[in-house]
Amino acid sequence: MKILMVNKFLYPNGGSETYMFKLGDYLKKRGHEVEYFGMEHEKRVVGNSAESYTANMDFHTNNLEKLMYPFKIIYSTEARKKIRKVLDTFQPQVVHLNNFNFQLTPSIIYEIRKYERQRKEKVRIVYTAHDYQLVCPNHMMSNPVTGETCEKCMKGNFIHCLKEKCIHGSTVKSFFGMMEGYLYQKLRTYKYLDAIICPSRFLAEKMSSNPLFENKTATFHNFIDEVKWKEVEKDDYILYFGRFSKEKGIKTLIEVCKTLPDIPFVFAGTGPLEEEINDVTNIKNMGFQTGENLEMLIRNAKFSIYPSEWYENCPFSVMESLLYGTPVLGADIGGIPELINVGVTGELFVSGDFGELKKKIELLWEDKSKTILYSKNCKEIKFDNLATYCTKLMGIYEA
User: Fold this and answer.
1) Whole-model pTM?
2) What superfamily would CATH give domain 238-380?
3) Can you give the chain as a three-state secondary structure string?
4) Are 346 and 303 within 8 A, CB to CB?
5) Which pLDDT band holds residue 67 (cuts at 50, 70, 90)?
6) Could you read off the pLDDT of 234-263 as tens digits, one per residue?
7) Structural domain spans, the chain
């Protein structure tokens, strides 16, 4: 089978790129042909036989070319022309969309369907929803000013994006985000998607609030590399690893840590709240960790905390912690509850609730028999590996 992977970035930049590259490599190993379409960039590591890519759009520079960006982020004739060259040359049977809004724009969907009509052969358009972009212009369903979760645009009322400056706090960017939402809602563009893969049931439910999507979603939790089970002697600390930012619940967690001076916490990561973390005497900041160092921090922790205050999708941090045999105390928000078996591999608390978070930390810290049992129970956890995930994915491709 010929599969065209589409993503605005064609170099390692974040989770969607890691997902796409791993899928593409594995599908090639299974005998499929895979090519890629997105923006040209000096760091690009994958490509297509037509050598056709859109010009790079960097929203963080201040050159004159940026003046044209507002017009390009809604509808891109360049992207339509460039992807058509790839379609004509490669002739894919499946086009797998990932992050494409703003830089590539939904205009490419029209070109794929035009190509299909002219060629008179079905092309499946599959979209992996890495975030809430199709129902929320700022893609996070979170108010950037208050930090609170927000569902005001869910029913297509995109005016709220402008009213609350939801995209980077900018009136201009939020205006065009609103306009993009209204345009493709009016055109019913997303009806041309054949399937939408959602990494959590929570995200699938939010997507299904749009009648165009309700019969097209499939929930596949993220794949993760298999981990060799080891039973280790736990050390006396509680671990948080991830980004040090407000939406991750770190402000609330910091305040809780201050009221529990006799409990040692270890934080591993980076982010804007780093200075506040460094001011707390019972928090040891290990900084950003990877590989074996991070693995040992996770394996040796009594339990880890995932205190998020936004609609998390399918966080790898929770999955990694459990696979390494470390129970998780997680916020009951987004897709987090889908990963934790309450009373078996961890516990949940009300997201953002200072009092309940403190109480649950104290209970788990003091009840060593419970955390030991939860740790042993983690041995039975099975998340999809890449092979299992791809088998499911082929069912979507071939439907």
Assistant:
1) 0.91
2) Glycogen Phosphorylase B; (3.40.50.2000)
3) CEEEEECCCCCCCCHHHHHHHHHHHHHHHCCCEEEEECECCCCCCCCCCCCCCECCCCCCCCCHHHHHHHHHCCCCHHHHHHHHHHHHHHCCCEEEECCCCCCCCCHHHHHHHHHHHHHCCCCEEEEECCCCCCCCCCCCCECCCCCCECCCCCCCCCHHHHHCCCCCCCHHHHHHHHHHHHHHHHHCHHHHCCEEEECCHHHHHHHCCCCCCCCCEEECCCCCCCCCCCCCCCCCCEEEECCCCHHHCHHHHHHHHHCCCCCCEEEECCCCCHHHHHCCCCEEECCCCCHHHHHHHHHHCCEEEECCCCCCCCCHHHHHHHHCCCCEEEECCCCHHHCCCECCCEEEECCCCHHHHHHHHHHHHHCHHHHHHHHHHHHHCCCCCHHHHHHHHHHHHCC
4) yes
5) very low
6) 999 999 999 999 999 999 999 999 999 999
7) 2-128+188-223+386-397, 238-380
Structure tokens at 245: 């930012």
Residue 124, C-beta contacts closer than 8 angstroms, at least 6 positions apart = 93, 94, 95, 194, 195, 396, 397, 399
373 vs 368: CA distance, rounded Å: 9
Q: Domain 2-128+188-223+386-397: give its CATH superfamily.
A: Glycogen Phosphorylase B; (3.40.50.2000)
CB atoms within 10 A of CB 71: 10
d(CA 135, CA 184): 11
User: Phi/psi zone of residue 271: left (φ > 0), alpha (ψ -120 to 50 degrees), beta?
Assistant: left
- Does the fold of domain 238-380 match that of domain 2-128+188-223+386-397? yes
Place 315 in a pLDDT band, splitting at 50, 70 and 90: very high
The residue to which tokens 């997201």 are assigned: 351
Per-residue confidence at 60, pLDDT binned at 50, 70, 90?
Answer: low
